Amino acid sequence: PLAIRGRVLSFDADPALVPSGGRGAVRYIEDGLVLVEDGLIKAVGEAPAMLRELSAQVMVADHRPHLILPGFIDPHLHMPQTQVVASYGAELMEWLQKYTFPEESRYGDPAVAAGASRFLLDELLANGTTTAAVFCTTHPGSVDAFFAESLSRGLRMVAGKVMMDRNAPPALLDAAEEGAADSEALIARWHGRGRLEYAISPRFAPTSSEAQLEATAALARAHPDLHVQTHLSENLGEIDFVKQLFPWAADYTAVYERYGLVRPKGLFGHCIHLGDREWRAMARGGATAVFCPTSNLFLGSGLFDLARARVEGVKVGLATDIGGGTSYSMLRTASEAYKVLALRGQTLPAFEAFHMMTAGNAAAMGLEERIGRIAPGLEADMVVLDSQATTALRRRMERVDNLADELFALLVLGDERSTVATYAAGRRVFDRRSGPARPAHA
Ligand code: GUN
Ligand code: FE
Known about the structure:
Elements: E1 2-12, E2 25-37, E3 40-46, H1 47-53, E4 59-70, E5 72-78, H2 92-104, H3 110-126, E6 129-135, H4 140-152, E7 157-160, E8 162-163, H5 176-190, E9 196-202, H6 210-222, E10 227-232, H7 236-245, H8 252-258, E11 266-270, H9 276-285, E12 288-291, H10 293-298, H11 306-312, E13 315-318, H12 330-343, H13 350-364, E14 382-385, H14 391-397, H15 403-413, E15 419-424, E16 427-431, E17 438-439
Parallel strand pairs: 1-4, 5-6, 6-7, 7-9, 8-9, 9-10, 10-11, 11-12, 12-13
Antiparallel strand pairs: 1-2, 2-3, 4-14, 4-17, 14-15, 15-16
Helix pairs in contact: 3-4, 4-5, 5-6, 8-9, 12-15, 13-15, 14-15
Fe (iii) ion (FE) binds at residues 76, 78, 231, 269, 321, 324.
Keywords: Hydrolase
Protein name: Guanine deaminase
Organism: Antarcticirhabdus aurantiaca
């Protein structure tokens, strides 16, 4: 067993609010201890009292005066886009054709996919992110590479093979039956191994034929508990294209509804330009709208309407969308979310932002029973954050005297330099200083 000592901060879902909405109840212990056993959180409480009861065999990682939070959760990003990030000067459809599709074409090579997966996981863990929903490429081997690397690190990861059979370069296309069959084989090979979960991943409506969406519908019906991840209503040109391709559909969301994909654990990236009917359809289906602020700003897609999602009762996730997005850091992502909402005349209090990055994103992914909080029985995925990691943070903190303001400054000014350590299933998977764990009573 291992114990982690520091300022423990976690958020309980507030049942009075939308499942992933609101800030939830704040749980804060100034001198807290998290006891970990067999990869799970065994107990949480006041450190002095708990240490008196614990045997001297228990190793204590003393992270005072740093904050201990649930590991961050990133519900939308693309493994093959780590070398697309920061590509100049295009909106979505041109960006895909000019930069993204050519890059993803390289991922038929298993060595490329393995290297990118290693890089991505290193980067996520350095930023305190312990779970993500990940698009790989059309190539089944890209999923094998990502899952193998995730399994070896003991991470809870959700990922899938992109299905697309039109409107992309031939090297990236599968075919209706082939895409579903390859997905089925990947589910058999990976889903449920360690903490891995397979996500059914049609890229988005413009790159799938109706035959492929039919096959996807059958796959989704056969696996009602799996995640589905795709993109929805990100860009006006994209929406026009969907209108041309699916003239029978009332709107973009209706395409996914027709194939049974608007359902619980359905993760719909962006949802910038939804109409009234579409918001209601998302709520009715129990699906999640994923807010990707750095991507939406970078690609000029638009401003997500968080207040609308809350009013409609639609679950919301907050995600990086690497590589349309520009940062691996959930702190940076939340900071940009704050600014997007400021342009909309909305606010994002610090407690709500940290709730979204942890318990909120867990609920948005249907994983609230396993991750997202520091509570007994949950998986021991945690990040230790230093709110004084940089000169700018230290300067600001001189004038901060309460937790909400400290967290807000950390969110606006912080990045991976604030990550002291990251734990997954109770194992230290990233460490800023490689400091050793020390025995209790020492
Ligand atoms: N829509 C379809 N594919 C993509 C992608 O890779 N990134 C983003 N941001 N939007 C998409
Ligand atoms: Fe995306």
